[in-house]
Amino acid sequence: MTPPERPDVIDVPSETEAADGASGSTTLTATIGPARRMDVIDVTAGFGGKTIIANIGLKVEPNSVTALIGPSGCGKSTLLRCLNAMHGTAKNAWVRGQILLDGVDINAGGVDPVLVRRRVGMVFQRPNPFPTMSIYDNVAAGLRLTAGGRGRHDETVERALRQADLWNEVKDRLRSMGGALSGGQQQRLCIARALAVEPEVVLMDEPCSALDPISTSKIEETILSLRERYTIVIVTHNMQQAARVSDTTAFMTILEAGRPGELVEAGPTSAIFDQPTNEVTGAYVSGQFG
Question: Strand ranges (DSSP E) for the chain?
Answer without folding.
Answer: 38-47, 50-60, 65-69, 93-101, 104-105, 120-123, 201-205, 231-235, 248-253, 262-268
